[in-house]
Amino acid sequence: MVNTIEEKEIHMTSNTKTAVPYYKPVGKEIAIFKHSHNSKIPFLLKGPTGTGKSRFIEYMAHELDQPLITVSCHEETSSTDLIGRYIIKGAETVWMDGPLTMAVKTGAILYLDEIAEARPDVIVAIHSLTDHRRELFIDKLGKIIKAHPDFMLVASFNPGYQRGFKELKPSTRQRFVAVSFNYPEAKIETDILVNETNILEADAKKLVNIANKIRNLTELGLTETVSTRLLVDAAKLIRSGLPKRLTVHVAVVEPLTDDVEVVSALNDLCDLMI
Ligand code: ADP
């Protein structure tokens, strides 16, 4: 069976007519990205899931008026998926560029989401694009392609989640400018919830307080704690009329853990705060 990358794993946007994605800056990330882009240096976003990494890249692509190609990497993602492959069309075999080759040729931003999940040959494939050469070697065609001047490689990586078993090697990391993303401070996170969902500010504040309380309970040993994404979803449910306590139970607590005792303790805690 031919292993092909599924379309749902690749997402392309061209920004000419789309609305500006809402992004609330949390630090100097916008300036750093612009300078990396000008200097043609690859960009690495580090941080837990749901902290605005993808939204930031969508925003930057729009700001810079560049097409964005996003690939959600997983353990099966290979260099062939990114570079391209021969496919059979009728009686012919034709070459089809993968998302990386397309981005290199057209000058798009290529965003490899969760790069450490991908197979090791992906890292090998991008090496010559991440240094002064800025070229892609397509072994199946025996061709070297020089990257378009606007091409930019961006990757994300979740250090906590991948701890121990899927690390990015120093030789790879040191090819990127790296910026850490984390849960924003309370005022900023409240603004995000209000902007994204139109929830009342008082309710948004309560959700953020609950999140920060749970985030500080490190003794629970949760693999991932409450993300801004979870809070946005909870805020949407409250806006749509689901009772607040129930919302917090199903949209904040339950997604975090399957440990019945922890769920029950967190539900009790949240009931006092919402
Ligand atoms: P990640 O890529 O880090 O997993 P996302 O970019 O998908 O996370 O963010 C999840 C959701 O959180 C977004 O859809 C958005 O609603 C919200 N969000 C998080 N941070 C921000 C931010 N700084 N500005 C605007 N929205 C944000």
TrEMBL record:
Which organism is this protein's natural source? Flagellimonas pacifica
Q: Which residues form the CbbQ/NirQ/NorQ C-terminal domain?
A: 189-272
Q: Which residues cross the membrane?
A: none
Molecular function, one GO term: ATP binding
Record carries keyword Metal-binding: no
Please state what the protein is called: Nitric oxide reductase NorQ protein
- InterPro entries reported for this sequence: ATPase_dyneun-rel_AAA, CbbQ/NirQ/NorQ/GpvN, CbbQ_C, ClpA/B, P-loop_NTPase
Superkingdom field: Bacteria
Q: Which UniProt keywords apply?
A: ATP-binding, Nucleotide-binding
Q: Which family does it belong to?
A: Belongs to the CbbQ/NirQ/NorQ/GpvN family.
Give residue ranges for domain ATPase dynein-related AAA: 43-176
